[in-house]
Design goal:
The chain has 419 residues and is an alpha/beta fold. It is built from 13 helices and 21 strands. Helices cover 31% and strands 26% of the residues. It is globular. It binds shikimate-3-phosphate.
Length: 419
């Protein structure tokens, strides 16, 4: 089987090819609503993008080719879209309003607005700029030195996109390495970004632009995660997922599942447009509980929900530490994951920012899971339902389309009984 193209890489590819000179073709891109909203944003900013089922053809107009949108830009459910665009648009010479759905309008934007204001950005928003909608009056920015308090690729990328349009040098540090797709894509386009004494250093306003080209987007590891766990907990499973991105800043789940006793093989390692890719073969295996230290969090931040499902089917206790960031995702994922397990008859506790799951090798199921407009809660619950004694029901499956249209059909193709 294959999974959709990587959501993070697709967002970045749409942005950088819109700013490239000439045509680019993005194949195997993510057709989730989040990425389509970013595509629509660039169309509204004057970029011609032709949407075909397997290829996006982007007619880039160069670094300074964007023009003012004539209506507010709706990023839907996407934190990545909203925050990366906030950084990029802060340094243009026009005005933009960025907004999104109810979930997006609850999520913290101050984490990008504050450093962008230090760069000179003029951004207004609800609660002093903490919440979207954000009104961005594009202006001349200057590079700053910024140490982010959180390891967040969205903060890093927002500031790198702002830094590209800023005068002078941008220096960025983060407490732990978050996913590095932006850095890799800058490098593959020849945008001069370098590492210096633990900081990322970018000279703003590069004298020459970059040319459009073909990019093949790797399969999304975070989408593959539901199948890695699903196959691990169902006796007799043997599933191979082809062309999955295995960027080490994303694959913490493989290490943790392997430590739990999972049987995952990484086959045919290769490189695709600056990103490592492989086929993943996963077979059923008895799992045991493990301790997951906080340092793991950045490399599997979106996978804790489905890891908690694996933990429920393991024998023994799994402790997942340092999950504060989960509270500010599409939903409060710490609470929502605990609630998902609780209604399924699994013993679970939250202690400060740690999630503790008492695995019994099986889970009763039978509950109705509240998804809180969160695609990953819905898919994790449906992965759990593959192996529970009683069916699992989700209150709303619609948000799955934000990242993974076709999820239910792919699962059905492997034997899932989804009503
Ligand atoms: C993303 C970064 C992560 C992740 C999100 C996608 C990205 O968020 O949770 O799904 O594409 O940069 P943070 O950077 O806020 O941790």
């Amino acid at each position: 089987m294959t999974v959709p193209g990587d959501k993070s890489v697709t967002h970045r590819a749409i942005i950088l090819t819109s700013l490239a000179e000439g045509e680019s073709r993005l194949s195997s891109y993510c057709r989730g609503e989040d990425c389509l909203n970013t595509m629509r944003a660039f169309q509204a900013l004057g970029i011609q993008i032709e949407e075909q089922p397997d290829v996006l053809r982007v007619q880039g107009k160069g670094m300074w080719g964007l023009r003012e949108a004539d209506a507010p830009i709706d990023c839907g459910n996407s934190g990545t879209g909203t925050r990366l665009l906030a950084g990029l648009l802060a340094g243009q010479d026009f005005f933009t309003i960025l907004t999104g759905d109810e979930s997006i309008r609850r999520r913290p934007m101050g984490r990008v607005v504050k450093p962008l204001r230090e760069m000179g950005a003029v951004i207004a928003g609800r609660k002093g700029g903490e919440l979207a909608p954000l009104a961005i009056t594009g202006t001349r920015l200057h590079g700053i030195e910024y140490s982010s308090p959180v390891a967040s690729a969205q903060i890093k990328s927002a500031l790198l996109f702002a830094g590209l349009f800023a005068e002078g040098t941008m220096r960025f540090r983060e407490p732990r390495l978050s996913r590095d797709h932006t850095e890799r894509m800058f490098q593959s386009f020849g945008i001069p970004l370098r590492q210096e004494a633990g900081a990322l250093v970018l000279e703003g306003r590069p004298s020459s632009g970059w040319a459009g080209r073909a990019i093949v987007i790797p399969g999304d590891f975070s989408a593959a995660a539901f199948f890695l766990v699903g196959a691990s907990i169902i006796p007799g499973s043997d599933v191979t997922i082809q062309n999955v991105g295995i960027n080490p800043t994303r694959t913490g789940l493989i290490d943790v599942l392997t430590a739990m006793g999972a049987n995952i093989e990484v086959l045919n390692r290769r490189d695709q447009a600056g990103e490592p890719v492989a086929d993943l073969e996963v077979r059923f295996s008895a799992l045991k509980g493990v301790d997951v230290p906080p340092e793991r969090a950045p490399s599997m931040i979106d996978e804790y929900l489905v890891l908690a499902v694996a933990a429920a089917f393991a024998e023994g206790t799994t402790v997942m530490r340092g999950l504060k960031e989960l509270r500010v995702k599409e939903s409060d994922r710490l609470e929502a994951t605990a609630a998902m397990l609780r209604v399924s008859g699994v013993a679970v506790e939250i202690e400060n920012d740690d999630l503790i799951v008492h695995g019994k090798g099986r889970a009763p199921g039978g509950g109705l899971v509240a998804t809180h407009m969160d695609h990953r809660i819905a898919m994790s619950a449906l992965a759990m339902g593959l192996a529970t004694d009683q069916p699992v029901t989700v209150d709303d499956a619609a948000f799955i389309a934000t990242s993974f249209p076709g999820f239910a059909d792919l699962m059905r193709g492997l034997g899932a009984d989804y009503a």
